From TrEMBL:
Binding-site residues, NADPH: 30, 50, 123, 155, 280, 305, 307
Protein name: Glycerol-3-phosphate dehydrogenase [NAD(P)+]
Subcellular location: Cytoplasm
Active site residues according to the UniProt entry: 216 (proton acceptor)
């Protein structure tokens, strides 16, 4: 197919080739929505689901309890057998909650022929190791090409075929212009999923994209807390802007780019999840803000994964190891895991040392950003 891209990007000789058979590994809400997306884009699609009961329900009703209300076409091969799901796949799409990805990636590696690429769709940082999801995959699936898919995308809306844009990131040998080369993995994954309602954008900064997806879950919990407390629009706007600064600082410290935070995986997903009760993280935070204990707040969400809970801890631990300040993530961690009352966490955020806003191109310096000393800050707030 001839390429009709704009004159500002390098024009490849051919469009990237889509993967014709896609195995989606993880039959929660997002894996199911991505299987629907691949199927709609014309790909032969299999879906591995862990729970026998959910697979049986799909078999009898055509619906997945993890994504209620959405018909799964019979052409999508749903199975609980990992080897059957992966057979013949040209691309494996990993959609496993972040704290379980490592175990499943090891099982997939044992079954997937060498060289078959993977797409990482989990949003989080692993507890204990502090590894990004692509690092977990690199360790369990050494040498395998990988891309990251992230962005503002509620599974239910994707299943409804609502227009959705995401970022697909993969590191390449050259600069960003190579993203449009015929064989670049990001481009191949993008054309595999693209349709009239699902539009991927390309990036060569997987680290920035991943960090954005992991941290936004924690920010969504914080935003929910503000809503549950009955607080207004000013505190939420402050939280979103300062939350983006936290993402940017951590990304840069890990080798990502500061400007990635302005894209779909950063600002886009922060706007989505920090302002909608469709977000499990936001709803969990709202229950906390309304006075529920963390256990009860999780209970209200049911068995769906709330990534912000484990990730408040894992993101903060990673940031502390790197010397990156993330006061909002720290506040969420202290509320969720250490019993700090919400009021005290908010007071600590408002009365910390006064800071300068980051200057976009000087983010490296902002890791150890100059701030007023604690005694100075105390005078300001006295
Ligand atoms: N739901 C959404 O709208 C979106 C979710 N994501 C991300 O996708 C990832 C998966 O989330 P969802 O599909 O929403 O999950 P979900 O909350 O719908 O379902 C829970 C999933 O966890 C799996 N699971 C539970 N225990 C497990 C274990 N021990 N080992 C392996 N798997 C286990 C279940 O099989 C099920 O697939 C998360 O990282 C989430 O942040 C990303 C974008 C959108
Ligand atoms: O990542 C998501 C949308 O982009 C889903 O967010 P929640 O997990 O908070 O529902």
């Amino acid at each position: 197919m001839p390429n009709t891209g704009s004159a500002t990007q390098t024009t490849p000789l051919h469009d990237p080739t889509p993967f014709s058979h896609v195995a989606v590994i993880g039959g929660g809400a997002w894996g199911t929505a991505l299987a629907l997306t691949a199927h709609r884009a014309g790909r032969s699609t299999s879906l591995w689901i862990r729970e026998e009961s959910a697979a049986a329900e799909i078999g009898s009703t055509g619906r997945n309890p993890f994504l209620p209300g959405h018909e799964i076409p019979r052409a999508i091969a749903v199975t609980t057998a990992l080897d059957a799901a992966l057979r013949g796949a040209g691309l494996a799409v990993l959609v496993i909650p972040s704290q379980h990805l490592r175990a499943v990636a090891a099982r997939v590696e044992a079954l997937l022929p060498p060289g078959v690429p993977v797409v990482v769709c989990s949003k989080g940082v692993e507890a204990g190791s502090g590894a990004l999801m692509t690092q977990v995959v690199a360790e369990e699936m050494p040498g395998r090409p990988q891309a990251v898919l992230s962005g503002p995308s509620f599974a239910a809306e994707v299943a409804e075929d609502q227009p959705t844009a995401v970022t697909i990131a993969a590191a390449g040998p050259g600069g960003p212009q190579d993203l449009f080369a015929e064989d670049h993995l990001a481009g191949r994954v993008a054309v595999t999923f693209a349709s009239e309602t699902f539009r991927p954008y390309l990036s060569d900064d997987p680290v920035g994209v991943e960090v954005s997806g992991a941290v936004k879950n924690v920010l969504a919990v914080a935003s929910g807390i503000i809503a549950g407390r009955g607080m207004g629009s000013n505190p939420r706007a402050a939280l979103l802007a300062r939350g983006l600064a936290e993402i940017s600082r951590l990304s840069v410290a890990l080798g990502g780019r500061a400007e990635t935070v302005l894209g779909l995986s950063g600002a886009g997903d922060v706007m989505l999840t920090c302002s909608s009760e469709q977000s499990r993280n936001f709803s969990f935070g709202k229950a906390l803000g309304a006075g529920r204990a963390p256990g009860a707040a999780q209970g209200a969400i049911g068995r769906a994964v709330v990534e912000g809970v484990a990730n408040a801890r894992s993101v903060l631990a990673l940031a502390q190891r790197l010397g990156v300040q993330m006061p909002i993530c720290e506040a969420v961690d202290r509320i969720v895991h250490r019993g700090l009352p919400v009021e005290r966490a908010i007071a600590a955020l408002l009365t910390g040392p006064l800071r300068a806003e980051p200057r976009a191109l000087e983010h490296r310096a902002s890791i150890a950003h100059p701030a007023l000393s604690a005694p100075q800050a105390r005078r300001v707030f006295a």
